[in-house]
Amino acid sequence: MSPYDDGGVDPADLDERNLLRELETVHRTRHETLLYGSPAALQAHNTRMTDLEGEYLRRHPHRQVSSARTRDGARER
């Protein structure tokens, strides 16, 4: 049984546009889920976020990294 048998879409099956849209949604709803979601809702959110981010990283292993988002860059601020 797949974790997406409940109607969710496997991130590997999303085209690029929809993967990015799903990532935006999961990141936008993260804070509210953390503060107010049930334990089950938070676990489902964690799983979905991890799966979506993992798929993005799989597709973009050499994505652009901002020097400001590194330890050295943070120290320079």
Q: In terms of topology, how is this protein built?
A:
Elements: H1 16-36, H2 39-59, H3 71-76
Helix pairs in contact: 1-2
Percentage of residues in DSSP E strands: under 5%
Terminal-residue CA separation: 48 Å
Question: How much is the radius of gyration in Å?
Answer: 15 Å
Structural class: mainly alpha
What proportion of the residues is helical, as a percent range?
55-70%
N-to-C SSE string, H for helix and E for strand:
HHH
Overall mean pLDDT stands at 90
Number of strands: 0
Q: Which blocks of ≥5 consecutive residues have pLDDT under 50?
A: none
Main pleated-sheet profile: none
Determine the number of helices (DSSP H or I, runs of at least 4 residues): 3
* 3D shape: flat
